[in-house]
Specification:
Pfam families: Polyketide_cyc2. The chain has helices spanning 14-21, 27-30, 113-133; strands at residues 2-10, 34-41, 44-49, 61-70, 75-80, 88-96, 99-108. The protein is α+β, with helices and mostly antiparallel strands. The relative contact order is 0.26.
Length: 134
């Protein structure tokens, strides 16, 4: 299992950023390989994703994920249920003056560290773009 960490400063109020990120309905808008996320109760979410395989192809994967919202700490965590890569992650939002620093942490057994890091940077750039324009 490897852990990957990336951060970005975002010119948006931390509480507003947390509200956006922790709303499960918004997941497909900023996670490029996630096409559907439907809450089913007790933090469980039915998801449909199209991950990129090492050969560059994509496959459709359906599964269940768990989510956890820690509002006082402004942390939104998630992970796969029964996935073979032990995937889990979190968004931590820290105050930076009037704005926010967003840190994403991913733990995964996936064998493509460069791909994971590139994916994290893409997600952070997407979130920054979406939330600074709102």
């Amino acid at each position: 299992m490897s852990e990957y960490v990336e951060s970005v400063d975002i010119d948006v109020e931390p509480e507003r950023l947390f509200e956006f990120l922790s709303d499960v309905a918004n997941l497909p808008s900023y996670m490029p390989r996630l096409s559907q996320a439907e809450p089913v109760g007790d933090g469980a979410v039915e998801v449909v994703a199209t991950p990129r395989m090492p050969d560059g192809s994509t496959v459709e994967v359906r599964g269940t994920a768990w989510t956890r919202v820690d509002n006082p700490g402004r942390t939104f965590s998630w992970g796969s249920v029964g996935g073979r890569h032990g995937y889990k992650g979190s968004f931590d939002i820290d105050r930076r003056g009037e704005d926010a620093t967003l840190t994403v942490r991913i733990t995964s057994g996936r064998a493509d560290p460069d791909g994971v890091r590139a994916g994290l940077r893409d997600v952070l750039a997407s979130i920054k773009d979406m939330t600074e324009k709102r």
